[in-house]
Specification:
mainly alpha, elongated
C-alpha cells in the first residue's frame, strides 16, 4: 500500500488530521526554538517578572522575568526527548520480553509473572519509587518510566505472538527447518508491527504526562531543566497572580498528549482489519 494512500485514509477523520497538525507544530516549535525566539530560556529579568503577554513577550514572563514562550519552546525539547526515549526503550524491551514469553512456552509463565507483579503497582507510584531510589535526573526519569511501561508492551506483544505463532506460514517455516531466530525476525515480528505502532503513540503520550506528574511532585528532573512539568511545578504558587505562567505550559502538555492519543487511535483504526470497512 502506497504511503500517500495510507495517509489519505488515516487523515480521513478530521480529528486525526487536526491532532497530527498540532503535534507537528509542537515538534517544529521545539526543534526550531532558537530561531523562533531571541530569548534564552534561563535569562532572568527581575524587573519584568510576572509581566502579562505583550508584543515583546508573547506569552508573558514567569516569576523570575524569564520569557515564557522561550521556556516552553526549549522545554519542549526536554519533554519530547524524555517521552521519545521512554517510548523507544519500552517498545524495545517490551517487544523482546513479549516475543520470548509468547513464542517459548517454558518462558511464558516466569516472564509474565514478573510482568504481572510490576503491573500490580499504579504507574505513577512505581515511577516515584524508582526515581526516589535512583535519584532525580533526566536519565533516571527515563529509566524509571521505561521500567513502568515495558510490562504494558510485553503483554500486548505476547498476546499477539501467541496468535501469530500458530498460523500456517509459521508452521511451514518450522517444517522447512528455518531457525528460530529467523522465524522470530522475519515471520513473527513483522506481523506485530500494528500493535507495536499503536503502543508507541500511547506510551509517548503517557510518558509526557508521567514526566509532568513526577516534576509536579518534585521527584522528576531537576528544577533547572525547563521541562513543561518543572515549569508548572515551579510556578504554581504564583498562579493566582499570573495565571498564564501555569496555563501555557499546562496547555502544551495537554495538547501534545491529546494529539498523540488521537493519532494513536487513528493508527489503530487504520490497522485494525475489523475497522477497515468503516474507513
Amino acid at each position: 500500500m502506497k504511503i500517500p494512500h495510507v495517509l489519505q485514509k488515516l487523515f480521513r477523520r478530521r480529528i486525526v488530521l487536526v491532532a497530527a497538525i498540532c503535534l507537528l507544530l509542537v515538534v517544529i516549535v521545539a526543534v526550531f526554538a532558537s530561531v523562533l525566539t531571541p530569548f534564552d530560556p534561563n535569562d532572568t529579568a527581575v524587573s519584568q517578572r510576572l509581566s502579562k503577554p505583550t508584543m515583546e513577550h508573547i506569552l508573558g514572563t514567569d516569576e523570575l522575568g524569564r520569557d515564557l514562550f522561550a521556556r516552553i519552546a526549549f522545554g519542549g525539547r526536554y519533554s519530547l526527548t524524555i517521552a521519545a526515549l521512554t517510548a523507544g526503550g519500552a517498545i524495545v524491551f517490551g517487544t523482546l520480553f513479549g516475543l520470548l514469553a509468547g513464542f517459548f512456552r517454558k518462558l511464558d509463565a516466569p516472564v509474565m509473572r514478573v510482568v504481572d507483579a510490576m503491573m500490580s503497582f499504579p504507574d505513577i507510584l512505581l515511577a516515584i519509587a524508582l526515581v526516589a531510589i535512583l535519584g532525580p535526573s533526566m536519565l533516571h526519569v527515563v529509566l524509571a518510566l521505561v521500567l513502568v511501561y515495558t510490562p504494558r508492551v510485553a503483554r500486548v506483544v505476547r498476546a499477539s505472538t501467541l496468535v501469530v505463532r500458530e498460523l500456517l506460514f509459521v508452521e511451514a517455516a518450522r517444517a522447512l527447518g528455518v531457525s528460530t531466530g529467523r522465524i522470530l525476525w522475519r515471520h513473527i515480528l513483522p506481523n506485530l508491527m500494528s500493535p507495536i505502532l499503536v503502543q508507541t503513540s500511547f506510551i509517548f503520550a503517557y510518558a509526557i504526562l508521567a514526566e509532568a506528574a513526577l516534576s509536579f511532585l518534585g521527584v522528576g528532573v531537576p528544577p533547572e531543566i525547563p521541562t513543561w512539568g518543572t515549569m508548572v511545578a515551579g510556578s504554581q504558587q504564583y498562579a493566582q497572580q499570573a495565571l498564564w505562567i501555569v496555563l501555557f505550559p499546562g496547555l502544551a502538555i495537554i495538547v501534545t498528549a491529546l494529539s498523540l492519543q488521537l493519532l494513536g487511535d487513528g493508527v489503530r483504526d487504520l490497522l485494525d482489519p475489523r475497522l477497515k470497512k468503516s474507513l
